[in-house]
Each structure stands twice: as structure tokens, then as C-alpha cells.
Write a structure and sequence with these properties.
Oligomer: single chain
Structural class: mainly beta
Distance between the termini: 33 Å
Number of helices: 1
Largest sheet: 6 strands, mixed
């Protein structure tokens, strides 16, 4: 499945330190939330999104010009092929002001540190 949507919630959000990794490929972005997930990583340099019923992660939905090279680059950047990856990429439902859509999301994988504490408000930018 090749989607042109990517939900970002941490350092890849517009205005954050790593946004330049995807900026040239973005044709549109808008606020969005990811229901059923929460953020962990308080005290770390970047967050992880983990399943958390009843919570929702604040982020940004990016629409990409050409998603294949962007996702290949992000897969390497996020280390999804590592033996114990911190992230894995899933297609999940996200919610925007215009409704629900499916987008790629890098969620926490088996390599998320045990020291990653919940982030208050599930918003990395707060």
C-alpha cells in the first residue's frame, strides 16, 4: 500500500529540529491526532508513540509529493531494519478537521528504552 500521507508527532513536525529531513517533499500539512496512542520519552531527545487506549497523540499530517523516496529515507533515518528497532512504520487512522484518513506513522518498536516515561498531554511541542 503506497500512501502519500505521513503523520508526524515529534522532531519531524514543522518547526521542529528534524523537519528539514522531509520539508522538500511536503506539499501540504495540517494538524491531526492519532487516537489510541500516547507519547513516551519525557527526558529523551525525541519521543516514541505507543499504544495507549483512551489517549491521543497531537501531531501533523503531511501530504507528500512523492512518498516512496521519502519513506525509504525515513525508514533508514528511523532505523526500522535494526535488530531491535526503536520504530516501526504502520498505516493507521488519523483524525483531521476534515475527518479520518489513513496515514503512515512511525510508532515505537521493541527498542524503545525502558526509561521512556509518558509525555504530559501527548504533545511533544507543549
Amino acid at each position: 500500500m503506497m500512501l502519500d500521507r505521513l503523520f508526524v508527532y515529534g522532531t519531524l513536525r514543522p518547526g521542529s529540529q528534524a523537519y528539514e529531513v522531509v520539508a522538500e517533499a511536503v506539499r501540504h500539512h495540517e494538524p491531526a491526532v492519532l487516537p489510541g496512542y500516547g507519547l513516551v520519552g519525557e527526558g529523551h531527545r525525541y519521543p516514541w508513540c505507543v499504544q495507549a487506549p483512551g489517549r491521543e497523540v497531537a501531531g501533523t499530517l503531511l501530504r507528500l509529493h512523492d512518498p516512496i523516496p521519502v519513506l525509504e529515507n525515513l525508514d533508514r533515518y528511523e532505523g526500522i531494519d535494526d535488530p531491535a528497532p526503536e520504530y516501526r512504520r504502520l498505516a493507521l487512522d488519523v483524525v483531521t478537521s476534515s475527518g479520518i484518513c489513513v496515514a503512515w506513522v512511525y510508532v515505537g518498536g521493541p527498542g524503545v528504552p525502558d526509561t521512556a516515561r509518558p509525555i504530559e498531554g501527548d504533545d511533544w511541542l507543549l
